[in-house]
């Protein structure tokens, strides 16, 4: 009967939140923050109505599905005209900023957690390097933020989690001792090429085929009504699932697939995406709610001043300094650099990585998990509360400059 209890509570929360969701979206208290807090209240450490295990696959699978759908829909909505003008910004954030973030995160973790080995420190830094497309949606879809900044953040968050997957797998293999030192050099080149390459090709091919099919069906009136809700979700999950099945990055496949689909189906994509966004929001809500039910116990049992300090540094210095360094020479205003640097939320991808690491039972697991969970929760709180106010403030400043960023 326990599963029906969980279903009842999930459904009751979803119904209650949906009744006031549009109103809450205009306030700092909305989205993932509400879902997580509700999950904590319902979880085993307070009301004890739901008791999920982070060691299980449920939360990881929910997070993967939510992130895949979000990546696909967000990239489908990308403004390619703007993106072509600003492509150098996300390219720098990914090729320079991401490695710098991992390196700086490793250095600080090495100083704070001296008892951990090199690979455990590297895992912490890499698990917290990617930004979250779903958690950053309040910013990248806010029209008051200049399009140049929105598209840059959207592309960065869409690709950095997929890029980090082979890095995570590499460090897990070395930390678990499943790879000999002599094999590590070849692995460091083979994994990214395989994981990223398969993701790119899978997303591109499926989006071309699926986009052609949907465009043809829409033009002939073969798909309408309630069926409009299904194709986008199905195509997003097809891109993700096939890429993962083939050993590639499903996250990259979902993002590239969405970007390609959006470019190929300009005429009909809006009605498909509008119908799909409700499903995407629902999956994200359930994921954050489920995460909240298990997060409070980890926060309480794993708390220490070192973990709190690292989590705060990860959200500020470790993220913002590489952003400043990699965008030197792009002529961006200081408030633009601060805005891009601050809105690097950590969320669904880091949750997936936590479950991956737990499954391997690595040395230092308790510390690794506590650091990542504390950082995610602080990100949900701080980025959730600041998204709307800071977006409005920054948008007004940019508008006063005639849109100059």
Number of separate structural domains: 1
CATH topology call? Na+/H+ antiporter like fold
What is the name of the CATH class?
Mainly Alpha
Give me the number of helical elements. Answer: 17
Largest sheet report? none
Radius of gyration: 20 Å
Give the strand tally. 0
- Overall spatial form: globular
Helix content: over 70%
CATH architecture: Up-down Bundle
- Can you tell me the residue ranges where pLDDT is under 50 for at least 5 consecutive residues? none
**What fraction of residues sit in β-strands?**
under 5%
Strand and helix order: HHHHHHHHHHHHHHHHH
Structural class: mainly alpha
> Residue-averaged pLDDT, rounded?
87
Please report the distance between the alpha carbons of the first and last residues: 56 Å
Question: Which terms summarize this structure?
Answer:
0% strand, mainly alpha, transmembrane helix, antiport, K(+)/H(+) antiporter NhaP2, Na+/H+ antiporter like fold, 405 residues, Cation/H_exchanger_TM, ion transport
Detailed description of the structure:
The chain is mainly alpha-helical. It has a single domain, classed as Na+/H+ antiporter like fold (Up-down Bundle), CATH 1.20.1530.20. The chain contains 17 helices and no strands. The chain has helices spanning 2-24, 32-42, 58-76, 80-86, 88-112, 118-127, 137-140, 147-175, 181-219, 230-245, 250-264, 269-301, 305-315, 317-326, 334-342, 348-360, 365-400. Helix 4 packs across helix 8 (147-175). The longest helix is centred in the middle third of the chain and has 39 residues, at 181-219. The protein is globular, with a radius of gyration of 20 Å. It starts with a helix and ends in a 5-residue tail after the last helix. The model has no long low-confidence stretch (mean pLDDT 87). It is found in: Cell membrane. Residues 15-391 form the Cation/H+ exchanger transmembrane domain.
